[in-house]
Design brief:
Layout (H helix, E strand, L loop, with lengths): L1 H22 L15 H11 L3 H4 L15 H16 L4 H15 L30 H4 L2 H13 L9 H9 L11 H11 L3
Length: 198
């Protein structure tokens, strides 16, 4: 008789346990403030807001990096470069190369003629020269035009996507200081990550 009662009690306990496992935990809805959040959906939403870091700096930065604090006007120029890059049908890496180039050439300031301090007739974000065929002064001091002109040159560089940033920029710009573009790669990538979808 004792064995029969014991088997019955264990059977009922087993059913209760199985019922709890299959039904899931019971929650007191009076103490829960919000429905559970799907962590996967949150992660996907965050990833969609930022470009892929591997695309921005595919080979890692080269050498010591420089950084300048930017004014509202300089941020406006960053956004203009990104908009022109998208208009040209190019990706985030092209924007990184463009912004790093403009950081080196003008610190992202749309420079006019600087008188005695001018490098020949170089002007604008990319310090392009009318005498070298980049366009008129009005054109090269227009951020969209000057970016499109730079990107047109970049598109003509075979394999620019696989090159270190400084080599790709130098091939377009033909600077007297070809290695100086590399120091701006991290800040350029950070700016593209921040403003690509803004």
């Amino acid at each position: 008789m004792n064995t029969i009662i014991r088997k019955s009690v264990l059977g009922i306990a087993g059913l209760a346990f199985a019922g709890g496992v299959f039904a899931g935990p019971m929650t007191d809805t009076a103490h829960t403030s919000a429905p559970p959040v799907d962590a996967t959906a949150v992660a996907v939403a965050v990833q969609a807001d930022k470009p892929d870091t591997g695309k921005l700096i595919p080979h890692g930065v080269q050498g010591a990096q420089s950084h300048v604090d930017l004014s509202d006007e300089q941020i406006t120029n960053v956004k203009a470069i990104i908009a022109a890059t998208k208009k040209a049908g190019m990706d985030e890496r092209a924007a990184v190369v463009s912004i790093a180039t403009a950081l080196q050439e003008s610190k992202l300031e749309n420079l006019g003629h600087l008188g005695d301090r001018n490098d020949h007739d170089s002007q604008g974000l990319f310090q392009q020269r009318p005498s070298s065929g980049w366009g008129t002064v009005e054109q090269i001091t227009d951020p969209e035009y000057s970016t499109m002109a730079f990107l047109k040159g970049l598109k003509q560089v075979d394999g620019w996507q696989g090159m270190p940033l400084t080599k790709a920029a130098q091939t377009v710009q033909v600077s007297a200081y070809p290695d100086h573009y590399a120091q701006w790669e991290q800040q350029a990538a950070d700016l593209v990550a921040e403003h690509w979808n803004s």
